[in-house]
Design a protein that fits this description.
Distance between the termini: 9 Å
Shape: globular
Structural class: alpha/beta
Bound molecules: flavin mononucleotide
CATH topology: Rossmann fold
Largest sheet: 5 strands, parallel
Number of helices: 6
Number of domains: 1
Order of helices and strands: EHEHHEHEEEHEH
CATH superfamily: Flavodoxin domain
Length: about 210
């Protein structure tokens, strides 16, 4: 089984979201005993934004008479798309930044959500071109954004679910450690709550084929 882990925090493997993603990966491995796992780590904090070559090539792709050479960020996009296509399961470790995904994750999405490659534009709207597969999102946030006592709106989950669906990734499950800015005891309780939720989820779900 091939897992692609997308690491979005500037704190990398020291981050809370990475920590949660590791909990999820441990559950995935435990719930598929007998399977071999290969984990590809995709850090996205150093990823360049899409460039003029990318924008030009994608916008002109539908008109073969004006096709431009595929170079620059487009080549990097192709590499990232193949990494995604190759995965049986995707785990995205991300903090919430300004109520949303961090710009690092947005940059990765701008690379892998590509017209006439990972989605097609039809009269009915965008149609995803990727094979669906389980996607787990591990979110860390300083404050809370779910439940009756949410301290802020949540633009992250609805937006991320919508853009992943646009390329065919519909099987998306979120877990979050919310309130990392709390005192250590409260943070410990929050982590334990999320660990119980994820343990419960994986006790009743076997997301990957045997
Ligand atoms: C630029 C920036 C923006 C942030 N915006 C939010 C926010 O809108 N809501 C929130 O709850 N926490 C916010 N935080 C706090 C982080 O979500 C929190 O520290 C989280 O635990 C970081 O996770 P990580 O360790 O995986 O990076 C922000 C942090 C930074 C650096």
């Amino acid at each position: 089984m091939k897992i692609l882990r997308v690491i979005c925090s500037p704190r990398g493997t020291a981050s809370e979201s990475y920590r949660l993603s590791q909990t999820l990966i441990n559950h995935l491995i435990d719930s598929h005993r007998g399977s071999d796992f290969i984990i590809t780590e995709r850090g996205v904090t150093g990823l360049s934004h899409i460039d003029a070559d990318y924008a030009e090539a994608v916008s002109r792709r539908r008109d073969p008479s004006s096709a431009v050479a595929e170079k620059g960020a487009l080549l990097q996009s192709e590499h990232l798309i193949r990494e995604l296509e190759n995965a049986d399961c995707v785990v995205i470790a991300t903090p919430m930044h300004n109520l949303m995904v961090p710009s690092t994750l947005k940059a990765w999405l701008d690379h892998v959500i590509q017209a006439d490659r990972t989605f097609r534009i039809t009269a009915q709207g965008k149609v995803g071109a990727l094979r669906d597969r389980p996607v787990f999102i591990a979110i860390a946030s300083g404050g809370t954004f779910t439940g009756d006592h949410a301290q802020q709106p949540d633009f992250l989950r609805p937006w991320l679910k919508t853009v992943l669906a646009s390329i065919g990734l519909l099987d998306v499950t979120f877990f979050s450690v919310e309130g990392t800015a709390q005192k250590p005891d409260a943070l410990k309780a929050t982590r334990e709550k999320t660990e119980r939720e994820s343990a419960r989820y994986f006790s009743t779900h076997t997301p990957l084929p045997a």
